[in-house]
Specification:
- Helix 1 (8-16) packs across helix 8 (214-226) and helix 13 packs across helix 14.
- The chain has 340 residues and is an alpha/beta fold.
- It has a domain at 50-224.
- It is built from 14 helices and eight strands.
- It has a six-stranded mixed sheet, with helices on both faces. A two-stranded antiparallel ribbon has the order 3-4.
- The termini are far apart.
- The chain has helices spanning 8-16, 21-28, 33-39, 50-63, 65-79, 98-114, 168-184, 214-226, 230-235, 249-257, 274-283, 292-297, 304-312, 320-336; strands spanning 89-90, 119-123, 127-131, 134-138, 142-145, 151-156, 193-199, 206-212.
- The structure holds iron/sulfur cluster.
- Residues 17, 20, 22-23, 261-263, 267, 271, 273-274, 277 line the site of iron/sulfur cluster.
- Iron/sulfur cluster (SF4) is lined by residues 17, 20, 22-23, 261-263, 267, 271, 273-274, 277.
- This is Secreted protein.
Amino acid sequence: MPPRALDARALAALAANPGCRRRALLDGAGVDKARLAEALGSPSAFGQSQFAFARGNSFEASVKADGGAELLRLLCRRLGVEPPAPADVTVPDLSAPGAAGRTARTALELRAAAGRGTWTLLDHPMLSLEVAGAAVYLEPDAVVVDPEGTVTVIEIKSFPILDGSADPSKVGAAARQSAVYVLALGAHRVRERVLLVCPKDFSNIPAADLLDVRPQLSVTRRQLGRLTRLESIAAALPADVTFDVSLPPVELTRSVESVPAAYAPECLAACELAFHCRGRARAAGEVMTLGRAVRGELGRLRTVDAVLDAAADPGPAADPAAAALRRAARLRAEALGVTV
Ligand code: SF4
């Protein structure tokens, strides 16, 4: 099967859960996790609705209309410079066969733009970044090269800016995604602030702001660097492991379960296998299903059974989490007038 390409959204999510070997391997191998989740009997509700997708596409097209005149105007206003006349903006053709061909073409045009001394708009360029030993191809909405040769990443989103502010979680996700593009442009002189363009107050009128992605850049750089190399994950697996979605669910489940996972509730918003992994984690009684904060409070107690045993043990506890649980169990029993 042709591998499913990773995108910056997936990479940002991958960096958000660097401890999950399962996701690293499946993404690195280009496995279609949505189809895999369906074949496992736990289809994901993850992803963008068709309506949101169409709305996003039409907003992006309107922002980029007329050779990107509005886009350049928004960027120049934020940079405090005079916008160029539309005729002075170069919009090169980036078409080439295959992702590798498009990446090479983009690199060529970026180099040409840096020495041109005028404005250049690259619409849907293709960039590549090495992640866990494999090349990942990334396609930002646009990048702009100014006359000094500095590259700015443009991120166009369809969530609204209401009364001058937008949903912080969505802005945060956009910043993490943009940081991946900035990393991929590392060989060029790239601005560490990206232009985020969103519709203003539910209209189709674009509003934009420069987003400082330096914090996200350092986190993403560190997390991606820590990702276990795929070869070492694959080497530890039985030789007959396969993620062929036409296999019976029992066999497929065995294969998937042979790769260690690190489920956390955040997976629900970031990974197609979340319902499958949550089901297995709940069945194993993992306290991580209750969230990272609870998991952190419980220290060495990893399962719900271990927590209940610790709470019910009448003896003194050396472990601070177990001591706190015992005290809580005693207080509860006193309040309810029952014995522990
Ligand atoms: S849902 Fe499963 S595979 Fe995906 S990141 Fe979470 S634990 Fe890993």
